[in-house]
Amino acid sequence: MNTLGVLGAVGIFRNRWLMSWWMAVAWGLGASVALAAAPGGAPSAEVVAAAPAERDMAQWVERMHGAPCRKSYAGVFVVMSANGAMSSSRIWHACDGLQQMERVESLSGTPRTVFRRNDEVRTFLPQARVVRTDRRDAAGLFPRVPVVSGTSMAQFYTSHLIGQERVAGFASDVVWFKPLDALRFGYRLWVERDTGLVVKLQTLALDGRVLEQAAFSELDLNAPVRVEQLSRLMDSTAGYKVVAPAVVKTTAQAEGWALRQPVAGFVPVSCHRRAVSAADDAQSLLQCLYSDGLASVSLFLEPFDPQRHPAQPQVSGMGATQLLAQRVSSDTWLTVVGEVPLQTLRLFAGQLERVR
To answer: Distance between CA 277 and CA 10 in Å, rounded?
Structure first.
């Protein structure tokens, strides 16, 4: 499998927020969006209400963690990258305390509908009449800030309340998560005042440029969306071929790999061996995910094949998502993908070693 094959097999460019983020200025949300940094490097925001009391990093993150279960909601979510590509999806979200459910219907590109029930994912492809099933971390549900054990985000980011703006008709606090080193990007989040729901998010380069952005262009925080309703739709697979590639939970150590030194702030979150296709369980790749609580990096390991893999390392990027692919041993090809600067991916690749 070549680098593009890895991307296609695991859907890596559909990141933990479902899609790449886009700059919202092109589609008029009614928010006054500053795409450049203000003097001194701080992003600016239009003040529309009296500022609430400042929260620290932990308080902001705790507030956003609980938001998806405070209310059911539905809306149209638009994403746009700095290279000008854009797409949109309609999202329905419900939570009953035990289960979180989402339905995400693509409004552009290839028709598809993705259902998520906690960590269970089903992707309906109506043109092919195929349903693909998978399991993913529930922390990946948009727009939830993931819960990652073992991290200390306050060591690597500082939080600043920089103003208030309206997004999709809702008053929102604008919070800047500023990185304290060059290994991670910054984030600017629009947090709905009453619920704590993240309604808009930007990824910022170290120089303040907006790399990616996503936001709701329409949002109903009183939508009559119920878990049982979405669950019935998710289970309605009649007339579809169900495809379920094998996924085995493992660890990097158990697979014979380790990092000589951890990359500052990033801790292992999960590791799985995935079949490339349901038709060929023998052909698989190993995916190990690392996160600092905001940014994430995935390492994909597969057998090296000189017929498919180039002799030289490969580097590419799309918005905030960077990719580095290279040979790491005589028989292994590594692809590192993450929403981090390229130097962070190089650190991961350089620290990876075979332990048996």
So the answer is: 10
Write down the domain spans for the chain: 3-234, 245-354
Q: What is the pLDDT of residue 347?
A: 98
What pLDDT digit, counting tens, does each position of 58-101 carry?
888 888 877 877 889 999 999 888 777 788 999 999 988 778 89
Among 63-67, 225-229, 247-251, which stretch is predicted with the lowest mean pLDDT? 63-67
What is the dotted CATH code of the domain comprising 245-354?
3.30.200.100
47, 218 Cβ separation under 8 angstroms: no
Task: Please check whether residue 338 is in contact with residue 324, taking contact to mean a CB–CB distance below 8 angstroms.
Answer: no
d(CA 109, CA 130): 17
- Residue 38's CB is within 10 A of a number of other CB atoms, namely 12
Asked if 156 and 184 touch (Cβ cutoff 8 Å), the reply is yes
* 325 close to 335: Cβ distance less than 8 angstroms: yes
Helices then strands, each counted (H, E), the chain? 4, 21
Q: From CA 298, how far away is CA 12, in angstroms rounded? A: 9
Considering only CA atoms, which of 296, 229, 310 is closest in space to residue 268? 296
Rounded to whole angstroms, what are the CA distances from 326 to 290, 302, 330, 346? 19, 11, 11, 10
Which CATH number among 2.50.20.10, 2.40.30.20, 1.10.10.10, 3.90.550.10 corresponds to the domain 3-234? 2.50.20.10
Q: Distance (Å, rounded) from C-alpha 330 to C-alpha 346?
A: 19
Question: Looking at the predicted structure, is the pLDDT value of residue 287 above 50?
Answer: yes
The four Cα atoms 93, 95, 99, 102 give a dihedral, to 10 degrees, of 0
- CB neighbours (10 Å) of residue 301? 25
Q: Are 227 and 101 in contact (CB under 8 A)?
A: yes
Whether a cis peptide bond, with omega within 30° of 0, leads into 143 is yes
Q: pTM of this prediction?
A: 0.80
CB neighbours of 307 closer than 8 A, spacing ≥ 6?
A: none
Q: Which residue has the tokens 């009614």?
A: 30
Three-point CA angle 341, 26, 187, nearest 5°: 30
